[in-house]
Design a protein that fits this description.
This protein is α/β, with parallel strands linked by helices. It contains 21 helices and 27 strands. It binds iron/sulfur cluster.
């Protein structure tokens, strides 16, 4: 027990990983000093993250120590809503008894699905992310589907490749062309960005396709594409490769199907026509095609942001096919998530215990609340009242009389403003876990450094506590943390060692799947997908895009200082509206003055920044602020779209349109 060493002059070191929903998944060492203070530093031997953390990684200590951290269960006194009501401290027994009593009453009506478990990715460790599902599945609650971020790309790539895993970060050193398509890696993946910068310094050509100029676009040729027109750009590049005889014909003949259909499909997209649609000059499209034509090992990073368009799945399909034209079997990265390996996630999450079938597309929580689908919502690993689109609808629903809401978190977030009971959660240093990456193949032990502060309890502990109160006696709902992790590790054939060895080694690399095996019906890369029609899609990616007159496309990239809404309250950024100067002139907007933007969902006022980094016809503001820190009690998510796309039911945040004008004065 580390606390026993306090005052002994001994500092202890623990291994861990930053478990945020981040491409990089950094390995780290945590030092517990004899005065009880914590220090984190990057794992210098880590093959990808190589000894440095970003500011958010260091800020995990600030989250742990923060004076506003929740340390006791709380019960609401008075009405719900921001700034209303107050909190009284209650015991864990009171809190759990009340929650279990409500759940039991709902189940007694024969409607356990009227309890919604709502979670996302606040902690990406296996235990913290999946273990609680055992409880909700055994109870029969409605289960939340994680569709807010990257659910479109997987099904899209699977149409052509059979599954969606691709490149690993260390592959960029071997690449002879790097294309970053729709991502500001400098902010969202600083370690992969460092690897790409190193490759660029050694002479590897880099192209960045993005409607916005950024730190990332500075390291290569920037193609400033109009949002949603990316399919056209990709088809035009493919057409050039065909036209100039730059396709890898041996590979295409032996390893692919449907390339002739794809060639015909691309044929209408001449450089000139594509330039007109995409806004990218024909010479730049040709330059990208010629760079592909010279490359034997092209590497294309497909960003999560670009697939959050209404046609995001189509974009991922079209872009993902480009490397195959050059004979690279999987020359793309989209996500090498847990499905890439043979982890027994169904067992870990208790799929075999599941009583009900009800699910919720998380993007449409507001719509479900309008339909009065739930009597209780239990939120864990998430802050939906900040992160969801169409927040006005969500707020209205969360205020409904009779809806009982519980939030498990470290802080009084925006979501807590609508809670009846708030439960204090553990920090990343207070519960053990195993943390996988979804870009690299390293899995890390996250050793528990300290006992929980105050009365905080982990996701695992609450799962067991509630299960016993609800009379759920499955052995899986009594399993200990280490026993669960041991079984997960010892049944995964893709690990090079067992649990005991992993505990010694702290981190290990999983075996990569064979990139030349394509589990499509033909066993080949299918340019024209043979399964698309059965899944409701066209065999070839559709060249569609969205345009609206007199409205601006609202782009909402994630700010460097946050992961979704996590960390925002540590150092809040002040949202501004970035507008192209030519658009601003037409709107008579000047630097620093307030603009009003609105659509059918909501209305927001933001100070204006004039910048040519934004493509004309779009405006930009960063996500995700906490609403309670915003003047007017609204954020950009008051405006974002809660429509979903056919691919994975994924969110379409980026395909949000707004009208913009000079903000009226209070007198009108
Ligand atoms: S947020 Fe990402 S880059 Fe930063 S420390 Fe965590 S895993 Fe590493």
């Amino acid at each position: 027990m580390p606390a026993a060493l306090f005052g002994s002059g001994v500092a202890l070191r623990f291994y861990g990983a930053c478990p945020r929903n981040c491409y990089d998944t950094c390995g780290q060492w945590v030092t517990l000093a004899e005065d009880g203070s914590l220090k984190v530093e990057g794992d210098a031997e880590h093959p990808v993250t190589r000894g440095f953390l970003c500011g958010k990684g260091y800020a995990n200590v600030d989250l742990h120590d923060h004076r506003e951290r929740l340390l006791h269960p709380l019960r609401r006194v008075g009405p719900k809503g921001p700034g209303k009501g107050s909190w009284e401290r209650i015991s864990w027994d009171e809190a759990l008894d009340e929650i279990a009593r409500r759940m039991t009453a709902i189940a007694a009506q024969g409607t356990p699905e009227r309890v919604l478990e709502f979670h996302y990715s606040g902690h990406m460790g296996f235990l913290n992310r999946y273990f609680p599902l055992r409880l909700w599945r055994a109870f029969g609650a409605t289960e939340t589907l994680g569709t807010i971020c990257a659910a479109a790309g997987g099904p899209a790539l699977s149409l052509h490749y059979g599954n969606s895993f691709g490149l690993y970060p260390t592959d960029y050193a071997e690449a002879d062309l790097i294309v970053v398509w729709g991502s500001n890696l400098a902010w969202s993946s600083p370690h992969v960005f460092a690897l790409i910068k190193e490759a660029a310094r050694k002479g590897t050509p880099v192209f960045v396709v993005d409607p916005l100029a950024s730190q990332t676009t500075k390291i290569g040729t920037h193609l400033q594409v109009r949002p949603t027109t990316d399919v056209v750009l990709a088809l035009a590049v493919a057409r050039e490769l065909f036209e100039q005889g730059l396709t890898a014909d041996e590979f295409l003949k032996s390893q692919t199907l449907g390339v002739e259909e794809f060639r015909v499909h691309c044929a209408p997209w001449t450089l000139e026509r594509a330039a007109e649609v995409t806004g990218v000059p024909a010479a730049q499209i040709r330059a990208l095609a010629e760079a592909f034509g010279r490359a034997k090992r092209p590497a294309v990073h497909i960003g999560f942001g670009v697939q959050r368009n209404v046609n995001g799945g189509e974009i991922v399909r079209a872009v993902g096919l480009l490397p195959a034209l050059r004979g690279a079997p999987r020359g793309f990265y989209f996500s090498n998530g847990n499905l890439t390996y043979r982890w027994d996630i169904p067992w870990l999450g208790g799929a075999h215990l599941r009583k009900g079938t009800a699910t919720l597309n998380m993007v449409q929580l507001g719509r479900a609340l309008q339909e009065n689908r739930f009597d209780m919502v239990f939120v864990w690993n998430a802050n939906p009242l900040a992160t969801l689109p169409n927040l006005p609808l969500v707020r209205e629903g969360m205020l409904r009389e009779g809806l009982f809401t519980v939030v498990h978190d470290l802080f009084l977030t925006d979501t807590c403003d609508y809670a009846d009971i708030v439960l204090p959660a553990t920090s990343i240093f207070e519960s053990p876990d195993l943390v996988p990456g979804y870009y690299h193949e390293v899995v890390h032990l996250n050793e528990q450094v300290l006992p929980p502060r105050g009365e905080a309890r982990s996701n695992h502990r609450i799962t067991l506590d509630l299960a016993s109160r609800l009379g759920l006696t499955h052995p899986e709902l009594r399993a200990g943390e280490e026993a669960t992790l041991r079984q997960l590790v010892d049944t995964c054939p893709d690990l090079p060692c067992n649990w005991e060895a992993l505990k010694e080694r702290k981190r290990v690399a999983l075996h990569r799947p064979d990139p030349t095996v394509f589990p499509t019906p033909s066993g080949k890369v299918e340019f024209a997908s043979s399964v698309a029609a059965s899944r409701g899609f066209t065999p070839l990616p559709k060249p569609e895009w969205v345009e609206r007159r007199d409205e601006f496309q609202l782009i909402t990239p994630t700010h460097a200082s946050v992961i979704n809404s996590t960390y925002f309250h540590l150092a809040p950024f002040a949202p501004r509206l970035e507008v192209n100067p030519e658009d601003a002139a037409a709107l008579r907007l000047t630097e620093g003055e307030e603009a009003e933007l609105w659509n059918e969902r909501g209305r927001l006022r933001l100070p204006v920044t004039l910048t040519a980094r934004v493509v004309r016809g779009s405006v930009v503001t960063f996500a995700v602020p906490w609403v309670k820190h915003q003047a007017g009690g609204a954020s950009v998510n008051d405006l974002t779209s809660d429509d979903v796309q056919a691919y994975g039911g994924n969110a379409t945040f980026v395909t949000t349109f707004v009208k913009v004008r000079k903000a009226p004065t209070p007198e009108g």
